[in-house]
Amino acid sequence: MVERAHGDTAGPSRIVLGVTGGIAAYKSAIVARLLMKAGHDVRIVPTESALKMVGETTFAALTGRPVHTTVWDDAEGVEHVRVGAEADLIVIAPATANTIAKLAAGIADNLLTATALVATCPIMIAPAMHTQMWNHPATQANVATLRERGVRVLEPAEGRLTGADSGVGRLPEPEHIVQAALGLLYDQDLEGERYVISAGGTREPIDPVRFLGNRSTGRFGVALALAAAHRGADVDLVACNVDAALLPHHPRITIHAAGTALELRERMLGLAPCAQVLIMTAAVADFRPATTTDSKVKKGGSVPDFELVENPDILKGLAADRSHGAFVVGFAAETGDEGGSVLDYGRAKARAKGADLLVVNRVGETAGFGDVDTAITILDSAGETRSDAAGTKSQMAGVVIDTISSARKGV
Hints:
Keywords: Decarboxylase, Flavoprotein, FMN, Ligase, Lyase, Magnesium, Metal-binding, Multifunctional enzyme. The protein is of the alpha/beta class.
């Protein structure tokens, strides 16, 4: 699970998402969904003005939690103290000039500002307002005050504002806000390191239309790339046929495309000498057609007879040739059968591949591939268990990165 930055209990981080009454408040719904998708517990605290932009029902439906705006709501539970004290991170997006001024002055006239005033966790704000309001000396002084107190202030983007106006003051895109927020939750223990991670599944062409492939979507590899980047690592993500909508947008992640097993092998070998850690998450086709046709094979007549040749074992090759000097981690998607259990096959593969760690990923109709939870067991090269966990892919990515760090330190 993700290690919480505030407090000493492992589990999903508790994030308060404050929403103020800017026109960009609608983007906060996307921010909430992305934070929840990353495995965190999100509580939305809007101002009354924000509810004029986005309805209470939307926020409640997104998080499954009641929405309150004043300190008089749930007064018996002293909610503003409880929510602020329990939070691991407070993100205010959008943050209007009015709310920024209140935060700087210590005014607590609504639930959001009162929550921020009692919080001891990191606070990040994403300002959004008209250019003149952002540039006004009062706003700049308030922002400077908050920064001096340790509040992370994102610079507003430049672009289209309300009406026909354009300029500085636009709310950063939700993905940028989330990346910055998650960066505050993690220790930057991987700073200065480079991870090379493959994701997705290779496709071996039969003709211009058909290919031999697999069900891997690349979600786990993407989650690993983000987990490493959030902790400060520079990441080369070799994406094999990963849907563009799934690819991460993070300043520390460089994406390299690969289609076939031979292309993936070339990318990994080329990047390996620069890496401290190599993670082979991509599902590689065992075989490829010996030849391909330039035109589509037509239906009808005799069934085409395809000769298959074996693809190179990329993981085994990376583990055998250690001239690159990197720590090598493999993935194995496994199912049990009458011949053995998932772990039986996983342990045999761990010993055969020779990687420093092998992540055995249990797959099936409701686990493993796609946007579903997963269960993993991490084995060392001798087949001994190092970690065993289940949860979302984002949570499991954290487990993998933690296990890698421990193993590299000899723990």
